[in-house]
Amino acid sequence: MNNKVVLKVKGLTKIFKEGKDSLEVLKGIDLEVEEGVSVAIVGTSGSGKSTLLQCLGALDTFDAGSVEIDGENIADLSEKQRTQMRNRKLGFVYQFHHLLPEFTSLENTAMPLKIRRVPAAEAQKRAEHLLAAMGLEERVDHLPSQLSGGERQRVAIARAVCGSPVCLLADEPTGNLDRETAVSVFDYLVRLTRDEKLTLIIVTHDPELAARCDRIYRLKAGRLIAEK
Ligand code: ADP
Ligand code: MG
Could you tell me the domains of the chain? Predict the structure, then answer.
């Protein structure tokens, strides 16, 4: 396996301040993840999992430490460069799919390439390939309202992967699904990121799903503890 480090986090500290009160949610997180590796982050509700992903995804600021993605330190980037980093190097999947309701699976999936002005035929080919890899070849021309919950999440995953990010950040992507569907969607996700050689950071509170990743960390009292 290629062991280029894609994500390098050092001493990441995040404090929420509200008036006189302050809550140190992340107390010096250190993490290094190589290309193509999948990492599950587990932890109780309120332990800071979403906050950690927001910091890794350059969607929230932090108070100390550094986050390097593909050799670029987020803290050194301007707001414009951060947006570029999110669009080119990162993919996001959430508990809710955030698909555009008036667009088909294919159009939603190809969106990251359309924004980058990739020629339509090329974008379509890539989107079709990813939808097929997610088992959705029969759902390419459907609107989100015509899909099941699991299918919508699979489209959201295809879309997040379409722009070939180096790192995919997924926050409880199967949290809204029944057990059986969650397992199926999770397996599709892990398989696709492996095929695409993406680094995957996935938050889940389900230990059985986490076990499907290469590594597991528990976020507890602001620190990461390796479990696998
Ligand atoms: P998790 O995703 O593990 O459930 P979160 O990262 O959402 O946890 O939240 C971690 C802690 O930080 C919680 O105590 C939460 O209330 C607090 N928190 C999250 N976002 C904010 C915010 N914007 N302002 C103040 N406190 C916040
Ligand atoms: Mg959360």
Answer: 5-226 (3.40.50.300)
54 lines ligand 1 (CB under 6 A): no
Q: Helix 179-195 and helix 120-133: axis angle, to 10°?
A: 130
Check if 22 has its Cβ closer than 6 Å to any atom of ligand 1.
no
Mean pLDDT of 184-191: 94
Ligand 1 centroid from CA 167, angstroms? 23
Whether the predicted pLDDT of 169 surpasses 90: yes
Q: Separation of 56 CA from ligand 1 center, angstroms? A: 15
Return the SS3 of 208: helix
CA of 157 to the centre of ligand 2 (A): 18
Q: How many CB atoms lie within 10 A of CB 176?
A: 16
Mean of all residue pLDDT scores within the chain: 95
Q: Is 204 in the pocket of ligand 1 (CB under 6 A)?
A: no
Query: Is the distance from CB of 9 to CB of 73 less than 8 angstroms?
Result: no
Q: How far is the CA of 62 from the centre of ligand 1 (A)?
A: 13
Residue identifier of the C-alpha nearest atom 27 of ligand 1: 16
Q: How far apart, in whole angstroms, are the C-alpha atoms of residue 9 and residue 56? A: 8
ipTM of the complex: 0.98
Band the pLDDT of 205: cuts 50, 70, 90. confident
Return d(Cα 224, Cα 84) in angstroms, integer. Answer: 28
Atom 5 in ligand 1: residue holding the nearest Cα = 48
Instruction: HSE, CB side, 13 Å, CA atoms: give it for residue 52.
Output: 37
